[in-house]
Amino acid sequence: MEKKTYQGLVVRETEEKKYARAIEELSIEALPAGDVLVRVLYSSLNYKDMLSATGNKGVTKKYPHTPGIDAAGIVETSSSTEFKPGDEVIVTSYDLGMNTSGGLGQYIRVPAAWVVRKPTGLTLRESMIFGTAGFTAALSVLRLTDYGIKAKDDVLVTGAAGGVGGVAVSMLSHAGFNVTALNSLLDERVYLTGIGAANVIEPADLIEESGRPLLKDRWTGCVDTLGGNVLTSAIRSIRANGAMTCCGNVVSHDIHLTVYPFILRGVSLFGIDSQNCPMPLRLRAWGMLAGAWKFPWLERLASEVRLSGVEGALDKIRSGNHQGRIIVNLWD
Questions:
Q1: Residue 187 predicted with pLDDT over 80
Q2: pTM of this prediction?
Q3: 3-state class of 306 per DSSP?
């Protein structure tokens, strides 16, 4: 079995700062050491996968490399007592797809501590419609609800047509929150209302560059996926004793604001780290995704490509011209 080969997307540095991607025949024997060998049936595409696939050394230090921070499949061999051959499992986060061969290959081998047993309420395919994006959205909503944000409260979601944002809009609306979605530069109003947004606003309706320390208080909570001036404008628009989460920096990693939202309104800002999330919280989030927060229009967020279609899908992510979640069927 160790001589078995499989197909995977490989990124190679052809010369300094130039990279090429191709589907190659790979050997299981060359996979990194680990407790659990998983036959990957589905993966999904994320912004971080695009960065890894285009040679971002902040994400992936050494090439050649197989990206893919998400994987769902069946255990083929295991040296851990926690898992046995035939188990359906999910692997996301940690170092998968960054500097460890990832889910855009038909096999991965990882430490048992990275592996989550698939909840009974999800299929493997559905788990990858969620993937890291949905998991991050679930962590964000858990932060808000644990803080005390409750159904019928007004919640803003930025980057609402993207992976994290689309799942957050859907989960929050399904759970009874009044969701406002921030539209992108493209007109995605029909899509956003179709996944549960009660209101859709344009960037000009949120972003305020005057430097005023506080803006009109409009929302009790917010899930921000963009950072930069979107994040700072949202913080200044949260109601007294409200809360928001931050999980991305697509707009910018810099924020410029005063302390007044925190000391005059008591606003709380929570950072979301899905990569190194402790296992008990990880299991709780996946349990919510498989249970109370599994919205009935999940498939509406998904488009599917084969391994041969990953190249074009990554280009769409790079251009920002995509909606929802792109899943990868590794064997069809």
A1: no
A2: 0.94
A3: strand
